[in-house]
Amino acid sequence: MVSASLEMNGVMDYSEKDAMSIVKIKWALVRIVYFYIYIAMLSGFGMVIFAPIITYYFFGDIRFWRYSGYFFPIMRLAYLMTYLMFRDRKYSFHRSLPLTAPPLTGPDPAKVRVSDQWQHDEKSCNSCIRCCLKLNCPFLDLKENKCAVYDSVYWRYFNCGRFPLSQEDIDFYECRKWEMKRN
Ligand code: SF4
Ligand code: SF4
């Protein structure tokens, strides 16, 4: 009986590991596809060829014609990010993010905490849009003061949903809310 139950546990462990591996492959594929699209976007042609996938990543919607106003602003952002990746060591977009990292809607509480200096609600940014303004993000809706791609694939898989990842991130965006935990 004991050996049978151990065997069962072994089977459970393997199936859980397999399921986790499949999920991680999915996370990695989402990012790899995005990187290909990102490079294609820089050409301009990519924006047209991959338009439904691009709008799906950003807006969860393949009806790309609804988002034509974002065409050039997204290209500008892609060029700016590329420039910063090579020119600014503090700018860490994608650099410290493993392909298999889970999509997130908040920073890692094991690494980050709200600063003692932050006098506002811990669950909100108190109308601060400093990090969104830093790169003049085209998805920042200034009329509504909100993110037009909130909770999208792009938002959850890359920097925005999990901000901040590091002290460099905090410094680059001059964020006053978060600080890294000292272990
Ligand atoms: S949260 Fe939204 S508006 Fe702000 S930088 Fe990210 S995508 Fe842009
Ligand atoms: S800079 Fe910090 S406080 Fe301001 S919006 Fe970004 S994460 Fe929130």
Structural description of this entry:
This protein has one domain (2-180). The longest helix has 42 residues, at 2-43. It has a two-stranded antiparallel ribbon with strand order 1-4. A two-stranded antiparallel ribbon has the order 2-3. It is built from eight helices and four strands. It is mainly α and 183 residues long. The protein binds iron/sulfur cluster (SF4) (2 copies). Residues 131-132, 137, 139-140, 147, 149, 155, 160 line the site of one iron/sulfur cluster (SF4).
Strand content: 5-15%
Structural class: mainly alpha
Main beta sheet, described? 2 strands, antiparallel
Q: What global shape is seen? A: globular
Which sequence of SSEs, written as H and E, runs from N to C? Answer: HHHHEHEEHHHE
Distinct bound molecules? iron/sulfur cluster
Number of domains: 1
Q: Multimeric state of these chains?
A: single chain
What integer value in Å does the Rg equal? 20 Å
Total DSSP helices: 8
Q: What percent of residues adopt helix (DSSP H or I)? A: 40-55%
Strand order of the largest sheet: 1-4
E-strand count: 4
Distance between the termini: 44 Å
Uncertain spans, ≥5 residues at pLDDT below 50? Answer: 1-8
Overall pLDDT: 89
